[in-house]
Amino acid sequence: MNRRRPPTHGPLFAPAPRRVVDELTVLLPVPPSTNALHGHGAGRPVRSNAYKAWIVAAGWRLQAQRPGRVPGAYILLLAVPEAETKADLDNLSKATSDLLQKHGVIDNDRKARRVVLDWHREHAELAATVRVVPPGVILESVSPIWPRTGALEAA
After folding, report:
1. What is the β-pairing status of strands 44-47 and 38-41?
2. Rg of the Cα trace of the chain?
3. Distance (Å, rounded) from C-alpha 29 to C-alpha 9?
4. Which of 35, 54, 55, 116 is most buried by its number of CB atoms within 10 A?
5. Strand partners, 27
6. What's the average model confidence in pLDDT over 56-65?
C-alpha cells in the first residue's frame, strides 16, 4: 500500500509572522569564514559542508530565541568571540546577514545601512544586534569619502 506523507510545508505550516521590533540581539554559532562558504562543483559554486552544517545549527539556535523582525533599513552590529575563530573579522558578516534574511529577521540584507564588527571575550557565540534605521533618517558618514588634504603628498 502506498501511503502519502502529510505535508510539512505550505500555508497551513507557515511559521507565524515575526513581531516588528526596533532592535533585537541574537546569539549564534560563529559562521565559517566567507572564504570557506563555497566550493566548486560542476563549474559553479556550491555550498561547502561546513557552511551547510552551520546554516542548520545557526537556524535552530536563531529560532529558539524567537527574535522579532526589523523591517526596512537597519544597522547590523556583530560581536565575534575572538578565541572561537581564526577568520578575519570582516569575513563573518555575509553568512550572518544571509541567515537573518532567510529566517525573516530582516527583509533584505541589501538594506543594511551600516555594519559594525568587533571582537569580544565574553562567551563563545557571535552576538548579532539589528537596529532599525527609521524612514527618512540619513546616517552621518563615518568613513572618509575623499583622502585627507595632504595625505597624497605625504606618501
Report:
1. antiparallel
2. 19
3. 26
4. 54
5. 127
6. 96
E strand segments, the chain:
23-28, 38-41, 44-47, 74-81, 112-120, 126-132
Please tell me the predicted confidence (pLDDT) of residue 155.
56
- Cell matching residue 140: 552621518
Length of the chain: 155
Tell me how far apart the alpha carbons of residues 33 and 30 are, in angstroms, rounded to a whole number.
Answer: 9
- Residue 94 sits at φ, ψ, to 5 deg, of -65, -50
Burial, 111: exposed, middle or buried (Cβ in 10 Å; 0-12, 13-18, 19+)? middle
The predicted pLDDT at position 62 comes to 97
> Does the pLDDT value for residue 154 go beyond 90?
no
Alpha helices by DSSP H, the chain: 49-64, 93-102, 151-154
